[in-house]
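Hi support team,

I submitted a single chain yesterday and got back a structure, but I'm not sure I'm reading the token output correctly. Could someone confirm the output below corresponds to the sequence I sent? I've pasted both exactly as they appear in my results page.

Thanks,
R.
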Amino acid sequence: MSDNADVADNVIALNLAVAMAARPTANPGQCTLECVDCGDVILEARRLAMLDRGCTRCTDCQDLADRRGVRT
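Hi R., thanks for writing in. Yes, this is the structure output for that exact sequence:
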């Protein structure tokens, strides 16, 4: 028998799974060499780390976009 904490954990896990599935991917598996916002080179380490989702921004511009709530 589950208690309230177990039910809450299940609801949180379900909400997270739904949110992650709904998250758009602009270029799945592809990264640009230059940031679309500032034009700086996107470091190889970032491109390799983002191979599954793709990336179009350098880490600094992506941080700014995340704070502003901008997608893709």
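A quick pointer for reading it: The first helix runs from residue 4 to 22. Let us know if anything else looks off.

Best,
Support desk
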